[in-house]
Write a structure and sequence with these properties.
The chain is an alpha/beta fold and 397 residues long. The protein has 2 domains: 56 residues; 324 residues, TIM Barrel. It is built from 15 helices and 13 strands. The strands form 4 sheets. A 4-stranded mixed β-sheet has the order 11-1-12-13, covered by helices on one side. It has a 4-stranded parallel β-sheet with strand order 7-8-9-10. The chain has a 3-stranded parallel β-sheet with strand order 2-5-6, with helices on one face.
């Protein structure tokens, strides 16, 4: 069941510290908290307190609606020019024998393998190599649209765009306009990592800067496009770096309104240069979701990417501000399983996702990429529904 504790109950507690009371009063009134207050929540906010505030905002915006979509991922290559210390997925050019490099026809064959299936989105992101340039992606997007015009193309991060535009000696503005003309529908949120250069230079040196990441999204928003945003947390950053990241996202969203969803991404430590860094605890994961929901008051959606954190933690997150758990992920993606993800085979059927959501008292809504409702599964009946009733329950916070 979902927590019965309310903000009013919190405010009636005379032992609540004054600073936390002030934050709770702002949330109750629908007012914005400051960056200093956000940092205080990271430093001192107890999980139960944060859960009540985040769930209040979540239910005020979405009620029990929890969104998912039917999507599949394609990774053109896992060979990459960059050597990010947190990455367990990519292979350096000298390690090509341990990687893959798909041709345009290879990628189209993957797209065609979903013909006749009710998927609505293809998510394309991968390593950075010279042959995957502006003409390649223009041709790819055009070919996908020619084959299946209704399939939403969510593709490439600013890391990839920065590289291919620089290689082509064109501006960000020209490059994004060409991607739009070729058939790009939206941008995923990857490559954000941590914006602060103190951390970014250590974990992702050589890639586009935080400012460049933000600028490419801003240009895309100015063209009328929508995109997502992420933050890789739980490695060598501290709470002030997280707050700097969230503040920059909130500032850009105030300016453009082009972001749809924020996705906190948990650092996984297997098979990378940061394997000595302990992973964040479940409590810290839930705190991070909750604070993101409280602070990013101008983002409509907070997503838990279930292949990264596992199905049960994704269910728990629905009580801490999360209202989206991504999609069926029908693919052979290796990015997260190679880093030690809970989900070694990240794919769920629509029925499994609906049951996962309904088992914790939430309402499963299938969406398209832009959050248009495709189907409400509130009244859907499955053959073995009884065995799922009450299988999981959310803790009282």
């Amino acid at each position: 069941m979902v927590s019965s504790t309310t903000i009013q109950t919190l405010l009636a507690d005379r032992t609540l510290p004054a600073a936390m009371r002030a934050i709770a009063e702002k949330v109750a009134a629908g007012e914005r908290i400051s960056s200093a207050e956000g940092l205080l929540l990271f430093e001192e906010g107890e999980l139960g307190f944060l859960g009540v505030l985040a769930n209040t905002i979540r239910e005020r915006r979405h009620g029990d609606h929890t969104y998912f979509n039917r999507n599949f991922h394609i990774e053109p290559t896992n060979v990459c020019l960059y050597t990010c210390t947190f990455c367990s997925y990519s292979r350096l050019i000298k390690q090509r024998s341990d990687g893959w490099e798909y041709s345009l026809d290879d990628i189209l064959d993957i797209v065609k393998s979903y013909d006749g299936q009710p998927v609505t989105e293809v998510h394309i992101v991968g390593g950075v190599l010279p042959q995957y340039d502006v003409p390649f992606y223009e041709s790819l997007f055009q070919a996908i649209k020619a084959h299946r015009p209704d399939l939403h193309i969510k593709a490439l991060t600013p890391v990839e765009y920065h590289y291919i535009f620089k290689k082509a000696k064109i501006s960000y503005e020209e490059g994004m306009a060409r991607m739009l003309a070729a058939g790009l529908d939206s941008m995923p949120g990857g490559g954000a990592e941590i914006f602060h250069p103190e951390i970014r230079d250590q974990i992702a040196g050589g890639k586009c800067s935080g400012e460049q990441w933000l600028r490419i999204h801003e240009i895309w928003h100015e063209l009328g496009g929508r995109s997502n945003a992420t933050m890789l947390y739980g490695h060598i950053e501290n709470f002030s770096h997280r707050m700097d990241h969230l503040e920059k996202l909130r500032e850009l969203q105030d300016k453009t309104g082009g972001f749809q969803t924020f996705i906190p991404l948990k650092f996984r430590n297997q098979g990378n240069q940061l394997s000595h860094v302990p992973e964040s605890t479940v409590i810290e994961d839930l705190r991070n979701y909750a604070i993101s929901r409280i602070y990013l008051d101008n983002f409509d959606h907070i997503k838990a990417y279930w292949p990264m954190i596992g199905r049960e933690i994704a269910q728990l997150s629905l009580a801490y501000g999360v209202n989206d758990i991504d999609g069926t992920i029908d693919d052979t993606t290796k990015i997260y399983s190679m880093a030690g993800s809970e989900e070694q085979t990240p794919a769920l059927s629509t029925e499994e996702l609906v049951k996962l959501i309904r088992a914790v008292g939430r309402q499963a809504i299938e969406r398209d990429t832009l959050y248009g409702v495709i189907q409400d599964y509130s009244d859907a009946v499955f053959a073995d529904d009884k065995q799922f009733q009450g299988y999981f329950s959310l803790p009282v916070v």
